[in-house]
């Protein structure tokens, strides 16, 4: 009997092409618009920006190295130590590493357009808004750094960065790279002072670049992928209000009374609504992701994880559907479905991060957002996209099922009892 | 077969139905008559087990249905006042869905759908979507759905509202046929007096939640045996004339329509000279003054002082 109710519900959906088009077309259109307009902000591969960076170097690095080695040679250090420093200094060229191995690396070439500028042109470059950042290496930087690392005298030199506030993205990237670079230099100094091995005294360009362009060494999430998921998890909530509206129409037209008079338990109808919401929600998500795969190349590295999260979210939609239906029946008004569709979904979408990664703004909002069905599902989907296994999404899955269970319980309590329905 | 005992339903402070007593015997057509808001639909909801009464009982074959409504639900076919159908589905899909929830399936369901479509004259339109149907066709399908499981008792709540005369006749003939050929018991509510007069063996008249009269058609009309109904027609009625009629102590009821005044007076009184005199005083030119055979409408008028469709 439940299946008869579900089948009819699916048929009613199928016979409303305009409604179907709206439910399926809207997320696809939103994914395309948001993905295209905000794509550059979140690309996980090479960032599609062109940051022009000026590099001003005071003094010659080789001269400073020679000066340092000369001092070492004339020092009272043991012969073995002098040989070791000579050997390792061949690899320790901090400015060359920064210029060629880091800023000039293949990974950053597409992002950073590095120009070597003479110190006398500094004022002109600083006034030129085309540059995202100006990097200035002070006099004796290499000499001081080597002295600090190997002879434990003084501190490493400090590189000056001038940021162009008009090109925040480019300047932030450059600053981030240099901060990392400076930290590694400082670590080398610390390690040298603590007698740590020679390998530790090297600046690792790959570590610096890697930290900048990917997040925690996981698969990057592109803007289109992010918004495909964000819009899908938001729009699937509209299924609940649509099913609530259809159910209320059944009540208003006395079709529900006919079902009851056929001696069908109202709980059969109730479960039918829950299952319909779950099935339609699951198909809705599958279709939106299917289209996203075809149009935007959204693919899932872990299909089982994807299935688990989709199922969890679909069950939540089922719970929401039956709750909205119960409240509509109880209040004898469709007001709640309209309120849910226009206000609550928007609030959920905002908190859950469907419009933008709100968790970046506030940890508290991120926590609250994870207690919305769309927010929990979004977190889980993103984890799967980044390459996490199914164990990483079990918490969200459990939350979605619990969320549905609570809604179904509230719905069952609110659903009008026998003899109360007119 | 079915008995309503002191049935009342109170919504907040208002009684929709108050102390209603009714009985329905197998195979009869019972009319439930009354204007909008009289309490007919609430009474039907209670007797069909959809709504619990505030007080009173509904007994089916001498057993209360309040705690166990299943026995009556199995034999009831309900035709609500609203078009209780899925308008986005075809006629056949509607019948299939409701047939399935009435636990029909396979060949039996298919045969029943064909039979019902034939009965309601929609065989040629079986694949058409209901929202494209005329009002009359929707009403016929609305009835057809209620007949799918061969109900013993069919309850029809104003089944002819808002349809053309041809569809209305079709529905009335169908109801009559179902009763005569299949001995189906029918409870028929309407505020169309002529429908109730045509169909019903016995009639209950309700007004403002109360039962104000009951009996066979003849029994009810005999309420007016001591009175007669006179219809006065004029091109332009005026207030002086109407007021004069209302102040005449021998006239028990005055109902004014556009160019017509209906009055009820005791049978032994010759009211003609008085009416002519009042018309002359009001400078009114009368077109006609007729004595009418009493109808149920006149009974209702007599009992409530209002017309049924007010």
UniProtKB/TrEMBL annotation, chain A:
Molecular function per GO: ABC-type transporter activity
One Pfam entry name: ABC2_membrane_3
Keywords: Membrane, Transmembrane, Transmembrane helix
Topology within the bilayer: Multi-pass membrane protein
GO cellular component terms, semicolon-separated: membrane
Domain ABC-2 type transporter transmembrane: 20-413
Subcellular localization(s) per the UniProt record: Membrane
Residue spans crossing the bilayer: 20-42, 226-249, 269-292, 304-327, 339-358, 397-415
Chain segments annotated as coiled-coil in the UniProt record: none
Predominant location: membrane
Name of protein: Permease
Species name: Virgibacillus oceani
UniProtKB/TrEMBL annotation, chain B:
Alphabetically ordered keywords of this record: ATP-binding, Nucleotide-binding, Transport
Keyword match ATP-binding: yes
Identification of the protein by name: ABC transporter ATP-binding protein
Signal peptide: none
Annotated Gene3D superfamilies: P-loop containing nucleotide triphosphate hydrolases
Gene Ontology MF annotations: ATP binding; ATP hydrolysis activity
InterPro entries, A to Z: AAA+_ATPase, ABC_transporter-like_ATP-bd, ABC_transporter-like_CS, DrrA1/2-like_C, P-loop_NTPase
Pfam family, one: ABC_tran
Protein's UniProt keywords contain Phosphoprotein: no
Record domain ABC transporter: where: 2-233
């Amino acid at each position: 009997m439940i299946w008869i109710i579900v089948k009819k519900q699916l048929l009613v959906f199928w016979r409303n092409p305009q409604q179907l088009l709206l439910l399926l077309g809207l997320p696809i259109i939103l994914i395309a618009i948001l993905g295209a307009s905000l794509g550059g902000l979140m690309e996980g591969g090479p960032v599609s920006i062109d940051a022009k960076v000026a590099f001003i170097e005071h003094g010659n690095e080789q001269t400073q190295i020679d000066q340092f080695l000369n001092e070492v040679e004339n020092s009272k250090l043991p012969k073995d130590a002098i040989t070791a420093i000579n050997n390792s200094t061949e690899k320790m060229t901090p400015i060359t590493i920064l210029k060629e191995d880091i800023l000039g690396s293949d990974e950053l070439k597409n992002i950073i357009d590095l120009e070597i500028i003479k110190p006398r042109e500094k004022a002109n470059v600083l006034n030129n808004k085309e540059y995202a950042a100006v990097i200035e290496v002070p006099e004796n930087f290499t000499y001081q750094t080597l002295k600090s690392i190997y002879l434990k005298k003084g501190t490493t030199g400090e590189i000056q960065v001038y940021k162009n506030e008009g090109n925040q993205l480019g300047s932030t990237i450059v600053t981030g790279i240099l901060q990392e670079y400076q930290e590694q230099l400082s670590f080398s100094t610390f390690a040298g002072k603590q007698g740590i091995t020679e390998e530790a005294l090297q600046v690792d360009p790959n570590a610096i670049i890697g930290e900048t362009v990917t997040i925690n060494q996981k698969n990057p999430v592109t803007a289109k992928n992010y918004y495909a998921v964000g819009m899908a998890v938001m729009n699937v909530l509209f299924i609940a209000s649509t099913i609530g509206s259809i159910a209320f129409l059944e009540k208003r037209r006395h079709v529900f009374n006919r079902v009851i008079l056929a001696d069908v338990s109202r709980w059969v109808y109730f479960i039918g609504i829950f299952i319909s919401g779950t099935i339609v929600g699951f198909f809705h998500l599958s279709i939106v992701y299917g289209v996203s795969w075809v149009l935007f190349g959204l693919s899932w590295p872990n299909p089982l994880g994807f299935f688990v999260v989709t199922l969890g979210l679909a069950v939540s939609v089922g719970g929401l559907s039956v709750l909205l239906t119960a409240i509509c029946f109880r209040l004898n008004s469709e007001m709640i479905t309209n309120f849910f569709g226009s206000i609550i979904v928007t609030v959920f979408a905002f908190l859950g991060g469907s419009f933008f990664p709100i968790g970046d703004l506030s940890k508290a909002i991120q926590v609250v957002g994870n207690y919305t069905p769309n927010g929990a599902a979004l977190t889980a989907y993103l984890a799967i996209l980044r390459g996490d296994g199914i164990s990483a999404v079990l918490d969200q899955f459990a939350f979605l099922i619990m969320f549905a269970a609570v809604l179904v319980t509230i719905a069952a309590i609110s659903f009008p009892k026998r003899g109360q329905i007119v | 077969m079915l008995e309503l005992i002191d049935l009342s339903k109170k919504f907040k402070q208002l009684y929709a139905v108050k102390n209603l007593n009714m009985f329905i015997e197998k195979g009869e057509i019972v009319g439930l008559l009354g204007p909008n808001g009289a309490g007919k639909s609430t009474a039907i909801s209670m007797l069909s087990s959809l709504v619990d009464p505030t007080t009173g009982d509904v007994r089916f074959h001498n057993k209360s249905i309040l705690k166990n409504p299943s026995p009556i639900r199995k034999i009831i076919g309900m035709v609500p006042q609203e078009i209780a159908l899925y308008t986005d589905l075809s006629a056949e899909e509607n019948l299939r869905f409701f047939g399935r929830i009435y636990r029909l399936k396979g060949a039996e369901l298919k045969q029943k759908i064909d039979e019902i479509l034939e009965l309601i004259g929609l065989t040629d339109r079986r694949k058409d979507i209901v929202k494209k149907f005329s009002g009359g066709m929707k009403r016929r399908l609305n009835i057809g759905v209620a007949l799918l499981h061969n109900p013993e008792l069919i309850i029809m709540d104003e089944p002819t509202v808002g349809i053309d005369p041809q569809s209305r006749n079709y529905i009335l003939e169908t109801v009559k046929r179902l009763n005569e050929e299949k001995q189906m018991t029918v409870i028929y509510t309407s505020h169309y007096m002529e429908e109730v007069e045509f169909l019903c063996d016995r009639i209950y008249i309700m007004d403002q939640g109360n039962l104000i009269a009951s009996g066979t058609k003849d029994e009810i009309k005999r309420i007016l045996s001591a009175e007669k109904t006179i219809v006065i027609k004029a091109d332009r009625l005026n207030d002086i004339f109407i007021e004069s009629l209302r102040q005449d102590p021998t006239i028990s009821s005055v109902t004014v329509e556009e160019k017509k005044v209906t009055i009820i007076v005791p049978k032994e009184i010759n009211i003609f000279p008085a009416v002519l005199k009042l018309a002359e005083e009001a400078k009114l030119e009368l077109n006609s003054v007729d004595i009418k055979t009493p109808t149920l409408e006149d009974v209702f008028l007599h009992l409530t002082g209002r017309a049924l469709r007010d």
